[in-house]
Amino acid sequence: MPMSYNAIHPGKVWLDTSGKPIQAHGFSVFYNEQEKLWYWYGENKEKTVGGKQNTIWHWGVRLYTSPDLYNWTDKGQIISRYVWLPMDWDDDKLMIRWKKEWKV
Question: Which of 81, 42, 34 lies closest to 64 in space, CA to CA?
């Protein structure tokens, strides 16, 4: 059964329309007037476990869309964790550097 919200619930896990936790951390949101859709993209941390055993800081970038800012549909991974980089960047700090360098 698809998930549906009519409010934001601070402190609770926010699920996408398929019932999975939203994975778009360190995110940006923008609105496309022609499509009448909100776009939310951010770091995919579904394979990040935290603590000393953590070896994956992020797993690429995921994209979600919403008509109302409450209900988000997962559109999949739009940037792979293993994207080729033209500069000598530490893979674990990719998203921080990417946002800083291009002011996203």
Answer: 42
